[in-house]
Automatic annotation (TrEMBL), chains A, B:
Homodimer. Its EC number is 1.1.1.85. SMART domains: Iso_dh (SM01329). It catalyses: (2R,3S)-3-isopropylmalate + NAD(+) = 4-methyl-2-oxopentanoate + CO2 + NADH. NAD(+) binds at residues 77-90, 279-291. This is 3-isopropylmalate dehydrogenase. Keywords: Amino-acid biosynthesis, Branched-chain amino acid biosynthesis, Cytoplasm, Leucine biosynthesis, Magnesium, Manganese, Metal-binding, NAD, Oxidoreductase. It comes from Alishewanella tabrizica. Pathway: Amino-acid biosynthesis; L-leucine biosynthesis; L-leucine from 3-methyl-2-oxobutanoate: step 3/4. Gene3D superfamilies: Isopropylmalate Dehydrogenase. Catalyzes the oxidation of 3-carboxy-2-hydroxy-4-methylpentanoate (3-isopropylmalate) to 3-carboxy-4-methyl-2-oxopentanoate. The product decarboxylates to 4-methyl-2 oxopentanoate. Substrate binds at residues 98, 108, 137, 221.
Length: 352, 352
């Protein structure tokens, strides 16, 4: 039988409590679909800083290297905001993990489900039309990792992209679109940036490999506007690292349901880091009211993309869907709900 | 009596028709408030490309240099999208104008007016809380104007900011906040960019000169989210060139009324370029249905910021407000309206 080793990095705030539910769900589907799972916890983020002084301790990194995937919770909180940027929980853990494992591809689905359209902060005349977008974000290049520096009087950052970097993320976007509504909207600022001109040209080239997919280009400023005016026009959004950072959070806001949104960060050989789109929510941590669904759906993405366990992934997604339909949700989804983190987790387990 | 020379660059699409109404309004207030105005038209954008091959002909630039302000319409359209980036109407006219006249400060107000909350694509539970933000965008630095280049295989852009550049735009934001709700939200990506760390430190320094103004910092990704979730939390947004480009358009989308939003781009000595936030809208050009209000309000900003004619500026703003209240609006504001561009312009003139 197959066996998978998972590094479980629960992190801070609500991370540990939502991770506990995801672990229960994973153990159930492993039984049902007959694969072995070793889930090994390790410190990350603020919890790791408190214990070791580092947001990504060497032991944690070593565990990740021996694992088949990383299931990540969330990191950060008011306690650590005073630290230098590269020592901070989020940046100090996520950026080195992305770079070490060459996780160049970030997938962030965003939905407005008709039954939950009211969660969206958009007007019903817009949200009733629905939204079903997949944001494909380049994650290991661009201005995040280019040469940077500063003196007393000024500072600089460099955005650099190569044809190879653009091509590989573009292929992911087109391949994803082929399984969806066959449309890619590539985001750039080609009226200003040389990297965007190269981005646009390269994406045009890759598009030829996918003749059944429609390609359009959109400036980032216009995209920020169009997502609010008519999000239903989009299928797959293809973005560089910075524009993807901005638009994926804008999409999450439009969906209105951060607690339901998973994300996957992948490299070219099946390894990935899976985490909820939301943050560590320190204000509600420890209260047992955090929504575990984004973490559970992140685990489902891990089964799909890193382990190829499509049936198990779908079983989780269907169980989540079932609980949503039964209104078994935490109070971020329905303020009148009395279900807590554990109750929602248990309901998903029971459905499975 | 005072006399002002204005370079009138109407441009493409709806530019000429909305500009015609702004000119009528300007001539009326010049009479009323007893100042002289010379309004000299010149070619810009696609119209200039067609006539001269250049989006910003030397004659036009020379006129601008002899003028006290530039009243700009809008440029661009499908006819010119195939041109090389720096030959395109928008970029090829706006970027050199900004650089030539050191227009480092872009002001973009964004409103949800209670009476027009339904224009906003946000849910009434959000839009009913209103929005009254001023986006202060640095306009002559950052990744727009840094060193850039490309080879066959890669391309790069450089974002560079100096303490002096950040300080002068920060002072504008704080001074504006003093006259408003006394809060500045400074936007950056200080967890990733060196320029953002310098931005944040410099803004902290400038804040000390304005002890009555509250300063908060927000990451660009979070800001893109928060603007949708609760736009009423913001007063003045202080942004670099790229982040301001994105957020000011996001704000315009949230306001839902592009046709009502003016903008001002200023240098340190009272010279400015004034233009509507919306584009050239080629789809409705020539039909007499475009909303002239953003252009008229841009003219009011010119009177205020470049000429110090505060009374005349307010008179225009009040006349616009009056027409809005009387529902004398084009159909972008009220689809059932039968008022066209000229009728709305005439009503504003009549109110004056
Ligand atoms: C924490 C930060 C460096 C990170 C990013 O900007 O990529 C975060 O915002 C994200 O999107 O995962
Ligand atoms: C046309 C383009 C270069 C310009 C910009 O990005 O600044 C436009 O989007 C704007 O905001 O005025």
């Amino acid at each position: 039988t197959k066996h998978y080793n998972v590094a479980v990095l629960a992190g801070d705030g609500i991370g540990p409590e939502v991770m506990a539910e995801a672990i229960k769900v994973l153990n159930v589907v492993a039984d049902q679909f007959q694969f072995g799972l070793t889930l090994t916890p390790a410190l990350v983020g603020g919890a790791a800083i408190d214990a070791t002084g580092e947001p990504l301790p060497a032991d944690t990194l070593a565990l990740c290297k021996q694992s088949d995937a990383i299931l990540f919770g969330s990191v950060g909180g008011p306690k650590w905001t005073g630290l230098a940027p590269d020592k901070q929980p989020e940046r100090g853990s996520l950026l080195p993990l992305r770079k070490t494992f060459d996780l160049f591809c970030n997938l962030r689905p965003g939905h407005i489900y008709p039954a939950f359209a009211d969660l969206s902060p958009l007007h019903p005349r817009v949200s009733s039309l629905g939204m079903d977008v997949l944001c494909v974000r380049e994650l290991t290049g661009g201005i995040y990792f280019g040469e940077k520096g500063r003196s007393d009087n000024d500072a600089f950052d460099t955005q650099r992209y190569s044809v190879a970097e653009i091509s590989r993320i573009a292929r992911v976007a087109f391949a994803a679109a082929q399984k969806r509504s066959k449309k890619v909207t590539s985001i750039d600022k080609a009226n200003v940036l040389q990297t965007s001109i190269l981005w646009r040209e390269t994406v045009e080239q890759i598009a030829k490999e996918f003749p059944d997919v429609t390609l359009e280009h959109m400036y980032i400023d216009n995209a920020a506007m169009q997502l609010i005016r008519s999000p239903q026009q989009f299928d797959v959004l293809l973005c560089d690292n910075l524009f993807g950072d901005i638009l994926s959070d804008e999409i999450a806001a439009i969906a209105g349901s951060l607690g339901l949104l998973p994300s996957a960060s992948l490299n070219g050989s099946g390894f990935g880091l899976y985490e909820p789109a939301g943050g560590s929510a320190p204000d509600i941590a420890g209260k047992g009211i955090a929504n575990p669904i984004a973490q559970i759906l992140s685990a489902a993405l891990m089964l799909r993309y890193s382990f190829g366990e499509e049936d198990a992934a779908q079983a989780i997604e269907q169980a989540v869907q079932h609980c949503l339909e039964q209104h078994i949700v935490t109070r971020d989804i329905n303020p009148k709900s009395t279900y807590g983190t554990a109750a929602v987790g248990a309901a998903i387990v029971a459905t499975l």
